[in-house]
Structure formats: C-alpha cells, structure tokens
Amino acid sequence: MTDYDVLRVFCAANGGYGNELGVVRDGSVVPERGERQALAAKLGFSETVFVDDPERGVIDIYTPGDRLPFAGHPCVGAAWLLDVPELVTAAGPVGARQDGEFSWIEARAEWAGQRTLRQYRSAAEVDALPVPPAGEWTYAWAWEDEAAGRVRARGFPGRGEGVVEDEATGTAALLLTARLGRALNIAQGAGSQILTAPQPQGWVEIGGRVVLER
Questions:
Q1: pTM exceeding the 0.85 threshold for the entire prediction
Q2: Do residues 130 and 35 make contact, with C-beta atoms less than 8 angstroms apart?
Q3: Residue 75 burial by CB count (10 A; 0-12/13-18/19+): exposed, middle or buried?
Q4: For a Cys staple, 192 with which of 49, 115, 168, 200, CB 3.0–4.6 Å?
Q5: One GO molecular-function annotation for this sequence (predicted)?
Q6: What is the pLDDT of residue 183?
Q7: CATH superfamily of 5-106
Q8: Closest by Cα among 18, 4, 28 to 191
Q9: Angstrom distance (rounded) from CA 188 to CA 156
C-alpha cells in the first residue's frame, strides 16, 4: 500500500472536526494519472493530494472520481504540510503563508469550478437541510451574524462517489467571498471553521487550522 498522511483541514479552535485530506508525500511512487485516480477512489477522501516536488510546492489533486486543477482544502493542507511560500497547481501558482495557528492560501474565484451558492434565511434552516439527491454541487449558506461576517454553511458535492457532504469546502468559501466582496468567518459541517478575505485584483485568501491526524 502506498504511504500517505491524513490531515484534517479547517479544524475548530479545539483541533476537532475539519475535512480529512489524504497526502501522498512522494508522488513519484504513483506517477501515472490513472494510478492516482484509482488510489484516490480507494482512499475515499473528498480529495487526495500527490506531491510532485516538495521544495517547489508542486501538487496534483484528485477527488474519488476526477482530477482537479485547484481545490481549497487540499491547498491549505498542503501549504501547511510543506511550509512553502507558494504551491504550483494545474490552475496556476497559489500563494501560501503561515500565520500562527492558521494556514493561508491565496487563489482566484475562477479556479473554483462550478458550484451553486444557495442562500437560506437562517442558520437553523441550513442545519435542517437533508442531503439532496445526486446532481449539482450545492453550497447552502445563511448569515449567522451579517454585520460580523459570520456564516453558517453546508456543502453537498452531488457526486455519486460516497462523499455526500463535505465537512469543509475552501473552493465554495472562495466563491462566496468573491460574490459578497467581504471577509467571512464560516462555520461549515459539524464544526469546522474557514476564514476568508478578499484581496486586490480578484484574489481571495482562505485560511484555517490544520492538524496531522496520522
């Protein structure tokens, strides 16, 4: 079995929750795209990262069923693990920095892919939502405190791959931040936390806590 690490990204303040991420630190042991896709499907995480050059931060990202040019929580996790100033993804260069307990990346909304952002009237309404049938990728959200930028959200990938709800979704948070044009403090899933902030020239910062699970 190929060696891999498991991180939890966008953890709560107590280190709990967060979205699990598989990271194969030595991507050369799984060089072919088909092999990587098969391993990502076998591991079953919402995303798995293959590190092709740890010093330059070159990474390759897969869901159980597809290869992604960019994804938020894999980049935040890889930035923390590799401790580099930049990641190189298929979408383009991703700025990275560490700030105390938070790992941050800087990316563009157009890299996020197709997501449906659906606003609800209250956090309680978002909490009560059933998992929708397979179909579009839906980010359900509502203001918890609009003045403070606090958001309650849940992410439903709509994929028939076994990942029915994402615990924390950086790409959807990126799109929501770009749409609203303001910094957000997002509570997603069962207890994860995502921080965001719009930057000049269409960039958005996404930050969160990362822990090494195993």
A1: yes
A2: no
A3: buried
A4: 168
A5: catalytic activity
A6: 98
A7: Diaminopimelate Epimerase; Chain A, domain 1 (3.10.310.10)
A8: 18
A9: 11
